[in-house]
Design goal:
381 residues, Aspartate Aminotransferase, domain 2, Aspartate Aminotransferase, domain 1, seven-stranded mixed beta sheet, 14 helices, 36% helix, 16% strand, globular
């Protein structure tokens, strides 16, 4: 923040996209810079500060700075997807580095970690999500990175970030947190001791299901891992297009409104489902019965996120039938948009998943909650 910028809240920073008019035309909407390359000065320097878009693009700058400010980090980088962000951080680690990760996490990333473990590129130990004793048992001197996802997708396990950071740091390891379901509206992991924060920005950060993007934020821009992450992004070309970066920044202007409304709706949906005899289990950290509720209350500020998962009485076919009868919810993959979605998650993850086959994952949007509740009621029959 420059000296002439007033000290404002994060909500204001997001709503105003940092509040800086375009210096050339004074437009309130930030411009898009589609150029792949930039002119040198006669002495060979780059007066505009950019040389080639695989390294950096001016359209990324405000989106990365806004993410950095919202998370309270030292630097941020955009990526072509959440997977690109997560895998680039892992690829920045040395060969055979030891990594600890939760068994319940974003399924595609878990499969990728399993593959790297089988190839001996990394040595990965998986532990039950949120189980600090299990984490403590496998973290050791020489562990490079501890990965945490909280709340976890799709079962909603909650991890105490501050306690996990203490375990990691005592062994000389770094802590990375996938905060996709929380967003900086609810949780800022760096304030709780995390070294890195990852977002699938496709989800709530963008919020309109029209961008695939990822982001990493670091607590220490001078660290060796961060320098390697920046190097890997440029060399592998895991970059976000200028138009996508612009759309992401536009989406983040309504972040605080969308996240709060979706969490408010999700809380009501979870409470109604938890009281419904046609439902056997509800997984949502906002419920007092959830095992991670107290931790979530400490580290989440504005609700408990948009994901409510529940088990339908019966088996896989019964869950499939309920999903098929929904009319306001759309049966589709992904989460965090303005519209509500449903997915029978086990069918997507395949035979090796630990997700119950009769579990439906709801991504709650910003519709009128009465419509969502009525739709669930008729679908449950």
């Amino acid at each position: 923040m420059s000296d002439d910028e007033p000290p404002v809240k994060r909500e204001t920073l997001a709503a105003q996209a940092l509040g800086r008019p375009d210096p050339t035309m004074r437009g309130l909407t930030p411009p898009i810079y589609p150029s792949a390359t930039y002119q040198r000065a006669p002495d060979g320097s780059y007066p505009g500060g950019h040389s080639y878009t695989r390294d950096q693009n001016p359209t990324w700058d405000p989106a990365e700075e806004l993410l950095c400010r919202l998370e309270g980090g030292a630097a941020a980088l955009l990526f072509a997807s959440g997977m690109a962000a997560a895998t680039t951080l892992m690829e920045a680690l040395p060969d055979a580095a030891h990594v600890v990760a939760p068994a319940s996490m974003y399924w595609t990333f878990r499969l990728w970690l399993v593959e790297l473990n089988e190839k001996a590129r990394l040595r990965v130990d998986f532990v039950d999500a949120g189980d600090l004793d299990a984490m403590q048992a496998v973290v050791r001197n020489g562990t490079a990175l501890v990965w945490v996802e909280t709340p976890a997708n799709p079962m909603g396990e909650v991890t105490d970030i501050r306690a996990a950071a203490a375990i990691a740091h005592a062994a000389g390891a770094k802590l990375a947190v996938d905060s996709t379901l929380a967003t900086p509206v609810n949780t800022r992991p760096i304030e709780h001791g995390a070294d890195f924060v990852m977002h699938s920005a496709t989800k709530q950060l963008n919020g309109h299901a029209d961008v695939v993007a990822g982001a990493l934020i670091t607590a220490d821009a001078e660290g060796g891992i961060w320098a390697q992450v920046r190097h890997e992004r440029a060399y592998r070309g895991a970059i976000l297009g200028p138009f996508e970066a612009w759309l992401l920044l536009r989406g983040m202007r309504t972040l605080y409104l969308r996240v709060a409304k979706a969490a408010e709706n999700a809380q009501q949906v979870a409470e109604v489902l938890a009281a419904d005899p046609r439902v056997s289990d509800v997984y949502y950290a906002g419920l007092a019965s959830h095992p991670g509720h107290d931790i979530a209350q400490r580290q989440m500020e504005l609700g408990f996120g948009p994901i409510v998962s529940f088990r339908v009485g019966g088996g896989a076919e019964d869950a499939r039938a309920v999903a098929a009868r929904l009319r306001v919810f759309t049966d589709a993959t992904s989460l965090g948009g303005v519209e509500s979605l449903v997915e029978q998650r086990a069918a997507v993850e395949g035979a090796d998943t630990a997700v119950p086959e009769n579990l439906l994952r709801l991504s709650i949007g910003i519709e009128n909650v009465a419509d969502l509740l009525a739709d669930l009621d008729q679908a449950l029959g």
